[in-house]
Design a protein that fits this description.
Elements lengths: L1 H53 L8 H11 L6 E6 L6 H14 L3 E6 L3 H4 L1 H16 L8 E4 L6 E4 L5 E6 L1 H20 L10 H10 L8 E5 L17 E5 L7 H13 L7
Helix pairs in contact: 3-5
């Protein structure tokens, strides 16, 4: 009887796993099909309206002009956006597109994170892809949307293009844990050297110490890509007040997907614990 119960339990467990896998697959693919249909129908629906607006000989604004204008239409624009990838399949070109679009909209800091450390191990490849997409998407205007890459474990830039506008930081799970450990060690040394007492240690002191070690602000918005309902260790201390928006997948993501998330952020009311 015990053997039969175990077999039934294993079958039910397998069915549950298959069900979850199918739901994840359908969710991602239905999202892609819906986006493809909207991509076909929306230009037709807006065509007459745009023709009235521009006239028969009017010219449509360039993508670069549109992106900059979109950023100015938002009631609030995040200063720092985190891109959290929870999917096993990672597309460097799609991530590079997201970074370049963030730059063009006017976002100053972008963090790229996955809990397997794929981006950290392939940091140079990601940088090359961002520069490539910067050239492809921004063309002759790329010098106005320059990017600076921050070195891992340091606050100094690793690579700079012409002039500074946007900072890109590649993160892994070690960054969040390591920062807290280093801050705790510093507090212990201060107590040992009698610069501080144990009564002086509180959340405010720890927060100040963590901020002193970084030149970039905490993320205002984190875009989480994939079906996993977890931040997977993304800078746990720094996202206490961060707005997190989930998206089905980063694969084949479009500018409209990104701008839709930015619109959601602009409309959300952040109570900051109140």
């Amino acid at each position: 009887m015990a053997l039969l119960n175990e077999m039934v339990w294993r079958v039910l467990h397998a069915l549950l796993y298959v069900q979850r896998a199918l739901l994840d697959w359908f969710r991602v693919h239905i999202w892609r099909w819906k986006r493809a249909v909207l991509g076909l129908l929306l230009p037709l629906a807006l065509g007459f309206h745009n023709s009235k607006k521009t006239g028969p000989i009017g010219k449509r604004p360039s993508r670069r002009v549109r992106w900059g204008a979109d950023g100015r239409t938002l009631e609030k624009l995040p200063l720092h956006v985190g891109l959290l990838i929870t999917e096993e399949e990672i597309q460097f070109t799609d991530i590079a597109n997201l970074v370049v679009w963030c730059m063009a909209v006017g976002i100053s800091y972008v963090s790229v994170y996955d809990n397997q450390g794929v981006f950290r191990r392939n940091n140079s490849r990601l940088m090359e892809e961002i520069l490539k997409q910067q050239q492809e998407l921004l063309g002759m205007y790329r010098s106005k949307y320059s990017v600076e890459f921050m070195k891992n474990g340091a606050d100094k830039p690793e690579h700079q293009v012409l002039s500074f506008q946007s900072v890109v930081k590649v993160l892994s799970p070690d960054d969040g844990r390591l920062s807290i450990v280093q801050a705790a060690q510093q507090l212990c040394r201060d107590v040992e050297l009698k610069k501080k007492t144990s009564q002086d240690i509180n959340v405010t002191v720890l927060d100040s110490l963590l901020r002193e070690s970084k030149n970039i602000p905490d993320p205002d918005l984190v875009l989480k890509f994939g079906p996993v309902e977890s931040t997977l260790g993304f800078l746990p201390w720094h996202i206490r007040l961060t707005e997190i928006i989930s998206m089905p997948s980063h694969v084949d993501v479009s500018y409209d997907d990104l701008f839709g998330a930015l619109q959601r952020y602009a409309m959300c009311e952040q109570r900051l614990g109140k």
